[in-house]
Write a structure and sequence with these properties.
Layout lengths: L1 E3 L2 H11 L12 E9 L40 E3 L5 E5 L10 E16 L5 E14 L6 E12 L5 E13 L5 E14 L10 E6 L9
Parallel strand pairs: 3-10
Antiparallel strand pairs: 1-4, 2-5, 4-5, 5-6, 6-9, 7-8, 7-10
Length: 216
């Protein structure tokens, strides 16, 4: 089987990935405690990430991260699905692009993130969650599929501060036609030369391409 996303999408993620596949990050620990936000969720997936993050909040304003007043809400960059990378398809080998040859199709439908600052606001630690659903195609059947999910954090200069592919195993059992999936990446610690640096950080997620592997 062949896993495939569009060339344009793959190129976009490759630019985000940069010359280095994984770059270490730095993160923080308090500023009034962690803050998080869950993006709108698809009914088919449900609250897959609800128990992994703090209660949902609206899009946050940009207060001064240095303020420690009780009830102060630190800023946390939104986790965005990169355009063109929200869908991933697995085809019968040699039949790429043929919708009747799809074995499995997966989509990202939900994201969440959480930021924790250190007391001096010199670094921030980010936790990122992604959820979605995998559906069998016309040529699909029971088995385990590998979904390549990329998580990246960019600085204000568009250079990657962190970029990593999470390989998510999705198992479809006999009698099932679709299954949910989720992945959480925590411990992404990033430096803050100044407290305002966090305003330039951007979080992107989406499917990436990986070497072809046979379904088990």
């Amino acid at each position: 089987m062949t896993r495939m996303i569009s060339r344009a999408s793959a190129a976009a993620l490759s630019r985000i990935a940069g010359p280095v596949a994984i770059l270490s990050c730095l993160v923080l620990a308090s500023c009034g405690g962690p803050v998080s936000e869950n993006m709108p969720r698809a009914n088919a997936v449900g609250d897959r990430l609800g128990g992994m993050f703090e209660p949902r909040q609206r899009e946050l304003p940009k207060p001064d991260p240095t303020q420690q007043a009780l009830g102060e809400i630190p800023y946390c960059p939104e986790a965005q699905i990169l355009d063109g990378t929200e869908l991933f398809r697995d085809y019968v080998r040699g039949s790429e692009g043929d919708e009747q040859a799809i074995t499995m199709q997966a989509s990202v439908t939900e994201t969440a993130r959480e930021c924790v600052y250190d007391p001096q606001v010199t670094q921030v630690t980010i936790k990122i969650g992604i959820a979605g659903r995998a559906i069998l195609g016309p040529k699909g059947g029971p088995g385990t599929f590998q979904l390549p999910v990329r998580i990246a954090v960019l600085g204000s200069d568009d250079k990657p501060l962190f970029s990593e592919i999470e390989r998510v195993a999705v198992t479809v059992n006999p009698g099932e036609s679709s299954v949910p999936f989720d992945v959480v990446r925590d411990g992404i610690t990033l430096p803050l030369p100044t407290p305002e640096t966090v305003y330039g950080y951007r979080i992107y997620v989406g499917f990436d391409e990986i070497k072809k592997e046979r379904r088990r």
